[in-house]
UniProtKB/TrEMBL annotation:
Key word Membrane present: yes
Keywords for this protein: Membrane, Transmembrane, Transmembrane helix
Taxonomy, superkingdom: Eukaryota
Organism in which the protein naturally occurs: Sporothrix stenoceras
Protein name: Uncharacterized protein
TM ranges: 25-50
Length: 69
C-alpha cells in the first residue's frame, strides 16, 4: 500500500514540476518581450531628446582627451 502512495506522490510531484516549468517559461518570455519594448522606448526617447547622439559623442571625446601616461 505504501508503494502505491509513494508512486502517486511521485507522479503528482512530477506533474507539479512540469506545470511550474511551463509557468516559468511563459514568465521568461513575457519578461523578454517587456524588456525589448522598454529598450525600444528608451531608444526612441533618447533620440527625441538628443541624448543618444550627444551623450555618446561626449563620452568618447572625454576618454580621448584625458591620458594617464
Amino acid at each position: 500500500m505504501g508503494a502505491v502512495l509513494s508512486c502517486l506522490e511521485g507522479i503528482c510531484q512530477a506533474i507539479g514540476r512540469v506545470l511550474m516549468g511551463i509557468v516559468n517559461a511563459i514568465g521568461a518570455i513575457i519578461m523578454f518581450i517587456v524588456d525589448g519594448v522598454i529598450a525600444i522606448f528608451d531608444i526612441i526617447i533618447g533620440c527625441l531628446t538628443c541624448q543618444g547622439c550627444r551623450g555618446r559623442g561626449m563620452r568618447r571625446r572625454g576618454r580621448r582627451g584625458h591620458s594617464t601616461v
